[in-house]
Specification:
This is Gliding motility protein RemB. It comes from Mucilaginibacter gotjawali. The structure is a single chain. The protein is built from 6 helices and 27 strands. The chain has about 525 residues and is mostly beta strands. The strands form 5 sheets. It has an 18-stranded antiparallel beta barrel. Strands 1-3 form a two-stranded antiparallel ribbon. Strands 2-12 form a two-stranded antiparallel sheet. The radius of gyration is 23 Å and the shape is globular.
Length: about 525
C-alpha cells in the first residue's frame, strides 16, 4: 500500500469542509450523519418501522434531518441520562457531550476522542486477549445542506485463536484494515472513514468519501453489507415522489490476490457500480430492486480499462453496455422486501442471483434471506428481537476472473461466511436506563475445501479451476458446523459517542470430521464509537 494511504483518505475531507465554511450562509437547520451499526440502529425500530410511516429503511447509514421520522427518537437516545448541571469540560466529555461542540449560526462542529480498550482471557490455553485503540471522530454541518464526517482509529491488539487464523489468512483485521503484525502474535492496523455530502431539500443527497454501505432490513445482507472494510465511494440518493427512492453508488475497491503488474506491488483495483430502487407500496409493504456490477480497472498485462462513462447509466446495468475487457463484468441482481405484519413486527427477505456462472460450475448461483424482527417483545418496552435465516449456494459471488469477485480486499461484500453455507441467527437487545444488553445465537452449516478441490465457499478463488465434479449442492465439501453464542452488558457513560463500560462472553465451536475447535472468551473494556466489529464467523 502506498505511503500515507490512510492520511490521504481523510485529508481531503478537512479541506472540503473548510471551503464550505467560507462559502455558507447562516441557518439553524441541522443534518446528522449517523454511522451504521446494528446495535444502535435497532434502537430506532419503533420509529422507522411504525405502520404510520412509509419510510425507506433499506439503505444505511441514514442522514437524519430535522424533519426525519426518527429524529425525535434519535435525540432521546443520544441525550438519554445526560446531566447538564455540571459545567466542567471533563464531566461533559465523559458523561453528556462532545469534546468539541460548536454551534455558530451557519455551521456546527462536533469532535470526540474514541478509546476502545479491551482486556480478555481465552480459556483454551490461557491466552490473553487485548485491544488498544485510540480514535477520533469529527462531524458537523455547514449551512442547511452540507454535512461532513470523518473518523480514524490506530489499533494494536491480540485476538482469539480463530480470529488470528482469519487475519493470517486474509491479511485483514475483520472489516477494518490491513494487518501489520507485531511480535508475539499481536496485530497492528489502522481504519479511517471520511465523508462529505450535500442534501438538496428532502429529495436529493450526494455523498463522497470513504465509507461502508448496508442494504437490507436484517442483521446480515445478501446484497451489500458493512462487513468488508470501507472503500472510496460516490453515492447519489433521489426521492421520486413519496413512493420511490433511488440510490446509485460508484466505488473503487482493491484485490490482494490478483496478478500485480507494477514495481510497487500495489493491489489491483476494481470498480463497483451499485443501483437500488425502493418502492414503498403501502405503509406496510416495500419492495426493492438491486443491481451490482464489478469490473477490473486494468487487465493482467497492466492495460488500463479505467472508468467507462457507460457505468453512469442510471438504470439496470447490463455487462454488454461496458467496454471490452479481459475479465468480463461480474453482474449481480437481487430483491429486498419487508412487510409489517403486526403493529410491532415485520417480516423481511432478500433474493440474489449471480450471473457469473462459469461453464465449469453446474447449478444455480443464488443467495436468499428470510427474517422476522420487532420490538417490545412480550410487551416489554425496548426489548427488540431478530430471527434470521441466510443461505448462499456454492460459488455465488465468485467469478472465473478473481479480480472481479464480490469482495473488497479479500473480504466478502455480503455475508461474512462467503458462499456454500446455511445460517440461522437470533438476536435480543434490551435497554434499561443506561444499561444495554445484547445476546446472540448463531448456527451455521458450510462446506470447506478439501485438498486442492474448490467446493465454492471461498469467493476469492476462480470458479473454473479445481472445481468439484457434478452439480453444486449447498454444504458440499468438508461438512462443517459452526455454533456461536455471545452476550454483552454495557453501561452507557456518554450516549453522544457511545462511550461505555462493557463486559462480554463469547463461545464458539467449529467442528467437522477433521477437527473440533472451541473458543470460550471473557472480556471487559472501556469502549466507544458506533462502528460494527464482527466476531461471529
Amino acid at each position: 500500500m502506498e505511503p500515507g494511504y490512510y492520511f490521504k483518505k481523510a485529508s481531503f475531507v478537512f479541506i472540503s469542509f473548510f471551503v464550505l465554511f467560507l462559502t455558507t450562509k447562516e441557518t439553524n437547520a441541522q443534518l446528522i450523519y449517523q454511522p451504521y451499526s446494528y446495535q444502535f440502529y435497532q434502537k430506532l425500530n419503533k420509529a422507522e418501522y411504525t405502520i404510520n410511516t412509509n419510510a425507506h429503511t433499506a439503505v444505511k447509514p441514514y442522514f437524519i434531518s430535522d424533519s426525519s421520522a426518527v429524529r425525535r427518537l434519535y435525540d432521546s437516545i443520544v441525550m438519554a441520562g445526560a446531566d447538564n448541571s455540571h459545567k466542567s469540560w471533563l464531566h461533559r466529555i465523559v458523561f453528556s457531550g462532545h469534546a468539541v461542540d460548536v454551534k455558530n449560526g451557519g455551521y456546527t462542529l462536533n469532535a470526540d476522542y474514541l478509546p476502545d480498550l479491551v482486556l480478555g482471557k481465552q480459556l483454551e490455553g490461557g491466552r490473553t486477549i487485548w485491544l488498544n485503540t485510540r480514535g477520533y471522530q469529527v462531524s458537523g454541518t455547514v449551512g442547511s445542506n452540507f454535512f461532513f464526517y470523518t473518523s480514524g482509529y490506530e489499533n494494536q491488539g491480540k485476538f482469539a485463536n480463530y480470529e488470528t487464523d482469519y487475519i493470517n489468512k486474509t491479511h485483514m483485521v475483520p472489516g477494518q484494515g490491513y494487518n501489520r503484525s507485531l511480535p508475539a502474535g499481536s496485530k497492528d492496523w489502522a481504519y479511517v472513514t471520511a465523508l462529505i455530502g450535500y442534501q438538496a431539500g428532502k429529495n436529493i443527497s450526494i455523498a463522497l468519501g470513504e465509507d461502508k454501505t448496508f442494504i437490507g432490513e436484517g442483521y446480515r445482507s445478501m446484497l451489500l453489507s458493512d462487513y468488508a472494510s470501507a472503500c472510496p465511494l460516490l453515492r447519489l440518493t433521489v426521492n421520486l415522489g413519496k413512493k420511490f427512492r433511488y440510490m446509485a453508488m460508484w466505488t473503487y475497491m482493491e484485490d490482494q490476490n490478483a496478478v500485480q503488474f507494477n514495481s510497487f506491488s500495489n493491489n489491483r483495483r476494481k470498480w463497483g457500480v451499485f443501483h437500488y430502487i425502493d418502492w414503498s407500496i403501502t405503509n406496510r409493504a416495500s419492495l426493492g430492486f438491486f443491481n451490482a456490477v464489478i469490473s477490473e480497472e486494468a487487465n493482467d498485462e497492466g492495460k488500463l480499462r479505467g472508468f467507462d462513462m457507460n457505468y453512469i447509466n442510471p438504470v439496470y446495468f447490463s455487462p454488454a453496455l461496458g467496454p471490452a475487457s479481459q475479465a468480463a463484468d461480474h453482474t449481480l441482481i437481487g430483491f429486498n422486501g419487508k412487510y409489517k405484519i403486526l403493529t410491532k413486527t415485520i417480516i423481511y427477505g432478500q433474493l440474489l442471483f449471480d450471473q457469473s456462472l462459469s461453464s465449469a460450475v453446474k447449478g444455480n448461483n443464488n443467495a436468499w434471506q428470510a427474517g422476522l424482527k420487532g420490538w417490545d417483545l412480550f410487551k416489554v418496552s425496548n426489548l427488540n428481537y431478530l430471527f434470521e435465516y441466510n443461505t448462499a449456494s456454492p460459488f455465488t459471488y465468485s467469478n472465473k476472473y478473481p479480480i472481479v469477485n464480490y469482495a473488497e480486499l479479500n473480504e466478502p461484500l455480503a455475508d461474512p461466511l462467503g458462499a456454500n453455507f446455511k445460517e440461522c441467527i437470533g438476536i435480543l437487545n434490551y435497554s434499561l436506563g443506561k444499561f444495554d444488553f445484547q445476546g446472540e445465537l448463531l448456527w451455521a452449516k458450510y462446506g470447506l475445501n478439501m485438498g486442492d478441490i474448490n467446493y465454492g465457499k471461498d469467493i476469492t478463488l476462480a470458479n473454473d479451476v479445481n472445481i468439484a465434479p457434478g452439480y453444486s449442492v449447498t454444504g458440499q465439501g468438508l461438512a462443517t458446523t459452526l455454533k456461536y453464542a455471545e452476550g454483552t452488558v454495557a453501561y452507557i457513560l456518554n450516549p453522544k459517542y457511545n462511550l461505555r463500560m462493557e463486559i462480554g462472553v463469547l463461545v464458539r465451536q467449529e467442528s467437522n470430521a477433521l477437527s473440533n475447535t472451541k473458543t470460550i472468551l471473557f472480556t471487559v473494556g472501556l469502549r466507544s464509537s458506533f462502528r460494527d466489529l464482527y466476531h461471529d464467523f
